[in-house]
Write a structure and sequence with these properties.
single chain, about 250 residues, alpha/beta, two-stranded antiparallel ribbon, about 40% helix, binds ligand 9D3
Length: about 250
């Protein structure tokens, strides 16, 4: 998959895509991330990329001409057509379901706004989809682009080996994750690792983990649980968890 990012801060995108699983996926040629700066498509001495907003009031809007020229350069950089996504607070909230769909596409172009955003006519003409990463105020779209690059990049075939445990990602099956433990078995405060995890009984360990994942989802994110149809086995495990809680 190829991802082109239109951003005033290419160094941020390069750094985010260079580390960890996505950095390795890039090295393996599973994903290719390129950043483009609209400032390189300005022609004035001050390399202006923002302008005043019509109708007055505070806030600036990104200049349309550099964006249009930058997007044209992105589109023609490789023959494959790209799905053009605008990161914006006005977008649809990103979900793992949408991430899985985006991960199947051959090419994405992520447009990162700064200031108050971009001209509405540009959205109508150039943007296929608008995505928000949550209900909080950021200073621009780059963090949203980094989120999409990471979430989509790790799903590319070959990006993760089993140790990375993506296959068992809790959000893949709609549940929160179970608790995790590592050395020491008993810590300095005298707190011990749950005995089942040291038992070597893999069926019991799997049951314990599933029960904890169901229980935590029930306690912390009942909204996620409400969306799920639980199997009889899951319902029994959740009842078991609730009994120890109530
Ligand atoms: C209503 C006045 N503006 C300033 C408060 C609204 C506004 C414009 C642009 C931004 C910049 N944010 C993004 O570009 C952005 C892009 S994706 C995203 N997801 C969640 N939250 C976000 O702020 C974003 C934030 C707020």
């Amino acid at each position: 998959m190829r991802i082109d990012v239109l951003t005033l801060f290419p160094e941020f995108i390069h750094a985010a895509a260079a580390v960890g699983v996505v950095g390795r996926a890039q090295q393996r040629g599973l994903i290719e991330v390129a950043a483009w700066n609209p400032r390189d498509f300005t022609h004035d001495n001050y390399r202006r990329v923002d302008e005043r907003t019509f109708g007055g009031g505070p806030g600036m809007v990104m200049s349309t001409r550099p964006l249009t020229d930058c997007l044209a350069a992105i589109r023609t950089a490789v023959p494959e057509p790209a799905r053009v996504i605008y990161l914006t607070p006005q977008g649809a909230r990103l979900t793992q379901r949408r991430v899985r769909e985006l991960a199947l596409l051959p090419r994405l172009a992520l447009v990162c706004g700064r200031y108050e955003g971009i001209d509405e006519r540009l959205i109508a003409r150039e943007i296929d989809e608008e995505i928000s990463i949550g209900d909080y105020v950021l200073s621009g779209g780059e963090l949203g682009a980094a989120v999409i690059i990471d979430a989509v990049g790790r799903l590319q075939p070959g990006a993760l080996n089993d140790a990375d445990s993506a296959a068992h990602d809790s959000f893949e099956d709609g549940l929160l994750d179970c608790p995790h433990y590592t050395r020491p078995e008993v810590d300095a405060q005298g707190d011990a690792v749950p005995a089942v995890l040291l038992s070597g009984d893999h069926a019991a360990i799997a049951r314990w983990r599933r029960r904890e994942a169901l229980g935590r989802t029930w306690l912390r994110r009942p909204d996620l649980l409400a969306r799920m149809t639980l199997s009889r086995a899951d319902r029994a495990l959740l009842d078991d968890f609730r009994r120890t809680w109530l």
